Structure formats: structure tokens, C-alpha cells
Amino acid sequence: LQIANHTYDAYFRSGIHQGTRVYVLSRLPVAGVLLGRVNATKYLIPNQINTAEVKPLPNRMDEREGKQTTNVERLGRAAEALQDALVQSVPPAPGKEPIIYVFPAWPAAWDAQFKLLCRGNFLVESTMQDKKIAYVSIKSRSGGICRLSNPWEEKDIKIYKNGKFWKTGKQNLILFNTNKGDVFKILLK
């Protein structure tokens, strides 16, 4: 992780800002949000959508490779980075089980709401408004162990299972077994 951060910083020697160019097929926005870089979300994703490499057409496609090869590849790359800025389901190390992180690279000043599928077939929903995460809802679509990084860090939380109060806690890693169809709602206590 330290090497990845140093490499990323070395690539962007002048920092990441509104004028930072991002090319159509670049994975730099994705790498930035996976490293938890809020500036990657704030500047690189929009700069990739509105690339300076080619002029997007009114329908948002571009003709990067000529008139007969219209494409939207940059939008796919930007969408991948956007999802990873909102929610990630990544293992902490090779061979480890994935942990769900909500708003890991999202600018706190930006309100957002999402419902996205994560590894393990967990449908995760959350809202950030006025710089605060309101809740995290997780629907288990297959059953299995769910691992969630507490978005409120070590503050007390309440967990509801299938609409009924289940338990409280304050651990950084919230770990619970699920059955197919279970819905968990996690709130700040």
C-alpha cells in the first residue's frame, strides 16, 4: 500500500486538481479511489468524462478512433471509479476475505445515495447527506458471512436484522453471518 501511494504521488507530481488531464482509457481514477484518494473522485472522474483527449459528441460518445468507431470507453472507466468511490468490497490483503467499505473516497461535502452490488452478492445501500452517513443497509442475496468496515469508526452502532433490533456494537470490523434474503440496517447509535 505504501509503494502504491508513493507511485501514485510520483505520477501526479503537481498534485490532482481541476486541470489534471485524464486520458480516455486511463485507470488512474480507479487506482486513486481504491487508494482512498478523494481528489481522484473530485477531479479525475469528471475530467475523464469530459476528456481533453477528444471532443465528446452531444450523445456523450466520442470518435477517438475515427468516424466509424464511436465509443464510450471513457464512461465505462469513469463508472468503475465512481462505484469504487461510493462502495468498495476488497480484501485487506491477498488471500483474505473482502470487506465492504462505504464512501471510502467520496468528498464529504457531496451528498450521495447509492444501491450497489458488492462481492459476496451483498446489495449495499447508503446515504451521505450534510457530511454524515445516515445508514448502511445490506441485503444478503445468497447468504454467507458479511464483513463491513464501520463507517463511523469506533462509535456505537445499532444493527437491525429483517426490520427488528438485533444488537449494538462499536467495533471497526462488523462481522455477521447471513441467510439468503436477510436485510441488515446499520445506524449510528
What would you say about this model in short?
By secondary structure, the chain is α+β, with helices and mostly antiparallel strands. It contains 4 helices and 10 strands; from the N terminus they run ααααββββββββββ.
Supply the key terms.
two-stranded antiparallel sheet, six-stranded antiparallel beta sheet, 23% helix, single chain, 189 residues, 10 strands, alpha+beta, 32% strand
Task: Note down, in words, how this protein is organized.
The protein is of the alpha+beta class and 189 residues long. 23% of the residues lie in helices and 32% in strands. It has helices spanning 2-11, 28-34, 38-49, 73-86; strands spanning 87-90, 99-102, 112-118, 122-129, 132-140, 144-149, 157-161, 164-169, 173-178, 183-188. The strands form three sheets. Strands 3-4-5-10-7-8 form a six-stranded antiparallel β-sheet, with no helix packed on it. A two-stranded antiparallel sheet has the order 1-2. The longest helix is centred in the middle third of the chain and has 14 residues, at 73-86. It is elongated and about 55 Å long. The mean pLDDT is 94.
